[in-house]
Design a protein that fits this description.
With about 220 residues, this protein is α/β, with parallel strands linked by helices. It has eleven helices and six strands. Strands 2-1-3-4-5-6 form a six-stranded parallel sheet, sandwiched between helices.
Length: about 220
């Protein structure tokens, strides 16, 4: 059972999400919160597996709350609920370790899929904002947010793994990478786990940022790997 906490400053949205998610056989909504401070207090008492986190909330917004939670509870997965005009918020949520990004108004199916994916360790980015996120990676490359990977770690990557890093940096999903490289999604997923281990990075988001910052994302690799 996936234990879920819903954080949104609008009561109607909290109630609606609680009802909708409660219909899923493998979900359990263990609580709701109206702002980031309430989230922090709740998590100290009960540990959800996944938090649906509204970006704009009073007292403590979703970005600050994400940062505080990931520092203390890195195992908790956070799905950010965002809107088209939240670029700066998404930028910072990425930086602090959110695992998923969904537009408010996403379908029940999309929301349920996102929760299951991040629970199982996969980053989930709504298709409507994927291109924005890729652009944000590029902006990150120009800031002081630097993902450090030493030369020895980089050299440990096999050619195919380096190609996967490049494709991750371009915002491709596992399915798209599998099609591009004529591999199964399972093979891609396992390879990305190996890449994370070799580079000592936390998640796919950090790989993407590093790929953009180092220029790996812009490199072209041949089909023979």
């Amino acid at each position: 059972m996936i234990r879920i906490l819903i954080a949104d400053d609008q009561e109607l949205i909290r109630q609606s999400l609680q009802i909708v998610l409660g219909l899923e056989h493998d979900f359990e909504v263990i609580g709701t919160a109206g702002n980031g401070r309430e989230v922090i207090r709740f998590v100290k008492k009960q540990k959800p597996d996944v938090i649906l986190m509204d970006i704009r909330m009073p007292e403590m917004d979703g970005v600050v709350c994400t940062k505080a939670l990931k520092e203390q509870y890195p195992e908790i997965k956070i799905v950010i609920l965002t809107t088209f005009d939240d670029d700066e918020y998404v930028f910072n949520a990425l930086k602090y370790g959110a695992s998923g990004y969904l537009l408010k108004g996403a379908s029940t199916r999309e929301l349920a899929e996102a929760i299951r994916k991040v629970y199982n360790g996969t980053a989930m980015i709504n298709g409507d904002i994927a291109s924005k996120v890729v652009k944000l990676f590029s902006r990150m490359a120009q800031t002081n947010l630097t993902i450090q990977v030493d030369k020895q770690q980089t050299e440990s990557l096999k050619p195919m793994e380096m190609q996967m890093v490049a494709l991750i940096g371009r915002g491709m999903s596992n399915k798209e990478i599998a099609a591009k490289l004529s591999l199964s999604e399972g093979t891609v997923r396992n390879s990305i786990s190996v890449i994370l281990s070799k580079l000592s990075l936390r998640d796919r988001t950090q790989v993407a940022i590093w790929a953009v910052q180092t220029g790996v994302a812009n490199m072209e690799y041949g089909d023979e790997v």
